[in-house]
Write a structure and sequence with these properties.
This protein is α/β, with parallel strands linked by helices. The chain contains 7 helices and 10 strands.
Length: about 210
Amino acid sequence: MGILKLEKVGYRYKDAPKDKFVFKDLNFEFEQGKMYAIRGKSGSGKTTLLSLLTGLEKCTEGTILYDGKNLKKMNLDKYRNTDIGIVFQSYNLLPRLTAIENIILSMDVSKVKVKEKKKKALELMKSVGLGDEHAKRKILKLSGGEQQRIAIARSLSYDPKIIIADEPTGNLDKETENEILKIFKRLAKKENKCVIIVTHSQNVCNEVDEIYDL
């Protein structure tokens, strides 16, 4: 059984007619150790689906299961802070903080028990290809590719089983995109993470294990 499963999931906005769904009858299953792409045209519901997977919205119909548990019955704050890591296209890093401070803040929010947070943050930065020289730089002093690497390191700070990335390479050139994809592939294949990427990029789709279309 997959770590994350959608069973006959449908969603419509609260003020929409009862027969007007963004999508309906989705049956997707995501396993650890694999990379997935979710793709679809603008307006197909990709962002809405991400909101459902991260527990920010509840499905109108059907069930979403995390590790066999109904998402609607879980502590969703804990779920977002410990079980899933989210990577955004726009990075969503705090510009007033340094790279390492952004990662440590994520540890603090998740209340993860780490004896030496600075050491752990530096290890995470190294795992995504950044050295100690980047640690004390403010976010806006980093390139787009470096910021995205910090965002990935931040999402890993509490060792989640699932990484959900929303157009993570949308603002990057092809060479940097390939480098970011290598990181995601390593997380899936060597660290047994479930990596789910919402994307328009054919390059991304060429690298994943399975594609779900909306």
